[in-house]
Amino acid sequence: MKQPIIWVHGDCLSPANPALQAYPESPAIWVWDDALIEEWQLSLKRITFIYECLLELPVTIRRGDVTAEVIAFAKEHNADGVVTAESPSPRFDHICDKIEESLVIEVLPVEPFVKYDGYIDLKRFSRYWRVAERYVFD
């Protein structure tokens, strides 16, 4: 890809996001996923935390259907594809499949925070942390 856009999602909200690192001049987008917010019943506290993380990133913030917004953003920037960081979320795979119907997508690997290949509940940070903290301080 010569002129991609970057899709930043909730599983890699960091300036060290590999997509932001690989394409520092490319425009980036974050989309508040209304369906996910409703499905997971995200608290205002978590939404505020995410927003504060976004303020540290060079992203355009939108709201709605993630696939539609990412594709529209790419078209607005005459992009030839989308670059993003990998995610363990099955929802991520579905969104990538839908984007690929219109654009080339490149998914970059992320250095894992912890080495763990079992199930971790990603809906609540505290549930994630109960498993992860055992591996972080080894």
Describe the protein's architecture and organization.
By secondary structure, this protein is α/β, with parallel strands linked by helices. The chain has a single domain (4-113), classed as Rossmann fold (3-Layer(aba) Sandwich). The chain is built from 6 helices and 5 strands. Strands 3-2-1-4-5 form a 5-stranded parallel beta sheet. β4, α5 and β5 form a beta-alpha-beta unit. The longest helix is centred in the last third of the chain and has 12 residues, at 125-136. The chain starts with a strand and ends with a helix. The mean pLDDT is 90.
Average pLDDT score? 90
Given as residue ranges, the uncertain stretches (5+ residues, pLDDT < 50) are none
Supply the CATH architecture: 3-Layer(aba) Sandwich
Query: What is the H level of CATH, i.e. the homologous superfamily?
Result: HUPs
Number of strands: 5
Helices and strands: which structural class?
alpha/beta
Helix content: 40-55%
- Domain count: the total is 1
- Strand arrangement across the biggest beta sheet: 3-2-1-4-5
